[in-house]
Amino acid sequence: MKIVDGVYQVEGVNCNVYLVENGDKLTLIDTGLPRSDKKILKTIEALGHKPEDVTTIIITHFHIDHVGGLKKMKAQTNAKVAVHEADSDFVAGTKSPPKPKNLMLKALTTIVKSAPVEPDLRLKDGDKIAGLLVIHTPGHSDGSISLLDEKRKVMFVGDAVRFLDGKLQGPPERFTLDMTKAKDSIKKLSDLEFDVMVAGHGQTLMPEASKKLKDFAAQQ
Ligand SMILES: [Zn+2]
Ligand SMILES: [Zn+2]
Fold this sequence. Notes:
There is one protein chain. 28% of the residues lie in helices and 25% in strands. It has seven helices and 14 strands. The chain has a seven-stranded mixed β-sheet. Strands 8-9-10-11-14 form a five-stranded mixed β-sheet, with no helix packed on it. It has a two-stranded antiparallel ribbon with strand order 12-13. The protein starts with a strand and ends with a helix. The site of one zinc ion has 5 residues, from loops.
């Protein structure tokens, strides 16, 4: 499904997974739950590309619904894997995330260890990767990031904020490490300029997405 020219959403996977054209190459943003690889590969083909055209895979944060397909997609594409430095060890499986009190979150963070992938790049706020600006938006997890395509005015927010049932919402509390930080991150995002907001869950918000997010942040 086309979001705007050069930005596509893979259908039928959870979380929302995006493919972004970068010249004649592709960037994959998140990889869905385990077994999402077949649907992602199908979409790559439908766009007229080969798997090896995917040269970069960016993970917005370490949760299983975002990294589940990572190991297989890395093997299929040989792409470089990029994760924020604060979530990298959890994706690599070399460290366990901070012990969540919440059982659901505990379950999520336990399963993720089953398919570790060592990130090739450990990202920081302000980095540029595959034409996308990295914005550190902690709260949902310590290493949650958003990605801004400045040319297309599209913001990929991961699970930092969602547009669901016609309204903007913060991240789900039971899966979120620090709600105060999460609110600060929404404010940080709303200070940037973009027309389209795409998230890990829910629907696309457009047009005037940053203006709408600013109104939402003011109510928080
Ligand atoms: Zn998440
Ligand atoms: Zn998610």
